[in-house]
Amino acid sequence: MEQTCEIIEDDATLKGVVKVRVPGIYGTKGAPLPARMAKLARPAAVALRKVYDDVVAAGGHLYISDMFRSFADQQKAHEDWKTGRKSAYSPPACNSVHESGRAIDIDAFDTVIGHKKVREILKKHGWVNIVATLTGSECWHYEFRGAKFENVRGEKGYEEMARAMKVEIGNVKKVAAAEKSKDQVKALQSGLNKILGTKLIADGIYGEKTKEAVIAFQKKFKLQVDGVAGPRTMAKLEELLKA
After folding, report:
1. Is 70 exceeded by the pLDDT of residue 175?
2. Which of 218, 201, 197 has its CA nearest to residue 210?
3. Fewer beta carbons within 10 angstroms: which end of the chain, N or C?
4. First vs last Cα of the chain: how many Å apart?
């Protein structure tokens, strides 16, 4: 397909979000990204169309590997990371910019003109990367924030920014479930601090440090070592906390 971000129509279920057609990596490389992922907030879609214009003018191409994620898709990505099926960290549902139609993952290693040049073009049109390096984990992840959401991130942190973006497009289903899960992770983090003497921040985000602490706990108490705080791990933790 043509190297462009084509805006097809408004998405009927999400405020200010449009369905788009972009070159993906699935099946035949360059075929349209699957429809369930091919959605962006309209300003992000307009900006990405300009990115494609500049990339093509420079003699390059740009393939997308990920874009919009539903609550279920985001939670699955998080669970895949926790169990080791996915190596790059993915935050739990309701904590990712992918759920707001303001994030893309690109094939950073197949652009013809190099990732550095593509990053310069993305940045020119408002797409920012969360890591400084051009290789390694998350180098492929870009977000369209704008001053409004950059300010939220600066004041309240990344997760609050992601939530604010979701609220803007009306993507608030299952937020209560996400809050319940967050409370459970906070309790896990506090419990691990008490039993292991770790210094986890009880923020409710099951990140790298929390996973490392869970693994340490499982090793110490001879549980299955998988980094997942499943029923047996939680039962042992609760048993020790009550002792």
Report:
1. no
2. 201
3. C
4. 63
148 by DSSP, 3-state: which?
helix
DSSP state of 125: T
Q: How many residues does the chain have?
A: 243
The DSSP string of 161-179 is: HHHHHHHHTT--TTHHHHH
Phi/psi at 77 (5° precision): -60, -40
Question: Phi, psi at residue 181, to the nearest 5°?
Answer: -65, -40
In angstroms, the CA 84 to CA 96 distance is: 19
The model's pTM is: 0.79
Mean per-residue pLDDT, 207-222: 93
Element containing residue 8 per DSSP (H, E):
strand 6-10
Closest by CA to 227, choosing from 215, 210, 239, is: 215
What is the set of domains in the chain, with CATH numbers? 6-168 (3.30.1380.10), 175-242 (1.10.101.10)
